[in-house]
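Second attempt. The first submission of ABC transporter ATP-binding protein had a stray character pasted in from the spreadsheet, which I only caught after the job came back as garbage. Lesson logged: always re-copy from the clean sequence file. Corrected sequence (268 aa) follows.
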Amino acid sequence: MRVTSNSTDERPRVLECRDVERRFGGLVAVTGVNMHIHQGEIFGLVGPNGSGKTTMTNAITGFFPPQKGQILLNGENITGMAPHKVARRGVARTFQNLALFNGMTVLDNILLGRHVHMKPSVFRTALYPWLARPEEIAHREVVEEVIDFMQLENVRDEPVDVIPLGLKKRVELARALVAEPSFLVLDEPMAGMNQEEKEYMARFILDAREERGVTVMLIEHHMDIITGICDRMMVLSYGEVIDTGIPKDVIADPRVIKAYLGGAHAVQ
Ligand SMILES: Nc1ncnc2c1ncn2[C@@H]1O[C@H](COP(=O)(O)OP(=O)(O)OP(=O)(O)O)[C@@H](O)[C@H]1O
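This time the job returned cleanly.
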């Protein structure tokens, strides 16, 4: 099914969520969520702890499908689709808690992000290793280019567990980017970072949009980052949307101020 935009923004909608609901037992984690993200946007998703941000991320990426509503990616209904199939459609994500493989190098962790493009031809590769060579070289080229883009050259051969948190978060973003996504979902990519590291990460996200044409959904608690780099934002509270719009307007909304002052995070 194709969906056309009926807002004043004529850009195609990469993502559209319609009346999405997800429950866990008796707990309604999100309900009645309507949202859309245009091609090329950086879209912020914010809300106090437990408001349903990660639940929406998991619903979109196929990890926990919604029980009600629809999710459309580039006009295609992907509701309930398995995560690997969503990934093959150009969606990559990072996780709130680091999901890197300790003991492996930075390079090998990033290389894992290419798995969506790798052919499962273990048998053929074992018998005829030379057939796998061109494919491996192509994967390596993408990885090298992303290592350069994310400025990880100096730590490429380090075990990932010994590098600082700011760099680990950068490795996660690099692993998502080597999948060559068109839509990137970032779940708190700046958690635990100092100001300088946050600004670096914000720059990489902006560059990913400018230089790689990626559309971004950004979950963040740091309101200064959201207002600084997002084109539009949406606020969830207790699993429901309380406002969507350009950051300047949304952070002035009394309902948003109340939700934040009632929670752990203040609007800055
Ligand atoms: N797998 C799960 N099983 C049971 N309850 C869950 C599960 N995932 C989320 N929840 C509940 O759903 C609600 C929304 O949680 P969610 O993690 O989506 O919020 P969040 O906005 O991402 O919070 P945070 O900012 O703390 O990460 C919470 O009450 C949470 O306890």
